Model the fold of this input.
Amino acid sequence: MNTLDIRDVSVIYPASQGGEAVTALSEINLTIEQGDLVVALGASGCGKTTLLSLIAGFIAPTKGYLTLGDSSIKGYPRIACGLDLGDEVIGPSADRGVVFQKHALLPWLDVIENTEFGLKLQGVGKQERRKKAAEYLKLVGLEDFHHHRVYQLSGGMQQRVGIARALTNNPEMLLLDEPLGALDALTRESLQELLLDVWQETNKMMFFITHSVDEALLLATRLIVMSPRPGRITHQFDLNFNKEFLACRDARKVKSSQEFISTREKILAIIHGDEADH
Amino acid sequence: MNTKSTTAMPDEKLKKAPPEASEANKEFTPLLQKLVTYSKLKISKPSIKIGEFYGAPGAGDSRIISVVSTLMFIAIWAFVTEMGFIDALFLPSPVDVLQKFLDIASNGFAGATLIEHLYASLTRIFGAFFFACLIGIPLGILIGCSYILRGIFDPLIEFYRPLPPLAYLPLIIIWLGIDESSKLTLIFLAMLAPIILSARAGVTSVRIEQIQVAYSMGASRWQVITQVISKGALPDILTGMRIAIGFGWTTLVAAEMVAAQQGIGFMVLNASEFLRTDVVIAGIIVIGVIAYCFDLFMRYLERKLVPWKGHN
Done:
């Protein structure tokens, strides 16, 4: 069982063109274990996406270190300048799947080709990867759309393809950067349920960014509230609403419980306090 | 009359003509009234057709208008020449040009038939185009992907790109002589720059999320370049190829200025020395028609290869 460990991580963007150096993240400590669904919540500019990019390996920390199991995530590819740096140092790789807010599907591939793309990159045979991809497309409810052009799908369907694509690759950890932010309320709820189903079934680590307090409370096993300038984690909550929801399958019931409402108030007060400060 | 209303089906609109309109036009005969209504509907702007959006700039099918405007242009040309307003030395009539065209096609001009001239020129253009794509597309993509290659090639390309091919033609002749290779090289160089630049621009048009997701699915850098960036750059590359072919035709005449025995550009130059205006115009029309046909083919290719263009 691998654990993601973030220790004293800071990200400072160097000064450019007369500006000052920006501290995007300051002294972040966070541990994500198997089965954790960590949701990051906070005002714009609090470094949520920077944190996700660090975990994904897209950027390197200025200070501190990130480890996943025995590997250190350093923000450059495993093979650099023709040298294989080995398993100890990794950039972005197949063990951490990413889903962005705006789908990053490849328009020259159809739905199933997009879904199997990761397996294709890894050299999995066509039959096997087709089978896997079809499995996950069925899971997200797109079994009848295998050969549709992705740019002709609705936003919700594109996002489903994005999620199916990440899952087909079977990563240890799923990184979701506001994956449901651009969707309508109904689609959003059905995809929230889908993600929770996937989480329950696969027990994967998930790191989920959102602007919506309701979404954060419903999904998270652990909620981290972040605060801007410099970006840092100010509060952490261990939550249980997702298990309640998975037991009763009634989002409105969960959201109308006294505990849910009072937690939401508490978190809103924190976030609004942040905004009042600036 | 309801001139503001817009519809693709005037007949349907006629049935629904507002009552006050028919009141006002009682004195018109029904046929005249129909004509007036129809013409007003036709000229009412902007007209939306079914399946189109209101306000999209330039929406609508322009093909019929193009045919009509071309015919009109030829008609005016025929009129001013046949009526003797312009001396045939300056502008021969379309009929004369057509006759000359048929004459060159069967009897030839300046020692070769039209087909031979065309064959020589098309070989030069498409030969140069082939090599320009073969080198320019991968080079442009790699320049876009690597700051080292960009550092090496950027000054070179930016230096030679704005130079007129005629300026370095003497140099190429000194280096390569006066045979085919210097002609090919000149056209090749004119085409190379737009192809490299478009491929490089295509690389930057690929969204960083698409690249990051590919890395997160285990792609190597090489796989990202070949399977994500190259394909994402394709729309821009095709545009660059269209521009390059245009540059090729522009440079062709310059290339055929020196020691050419055949070629459509050579034919036009040779004809101009003997004041054969009809041959000059016939040659120009041939070049224009071929270039236009190739551009139509490239647009067709674009629709087939990059149907997602504009949808990304």
About this structure: The mean pLDDT of chain B is 86.
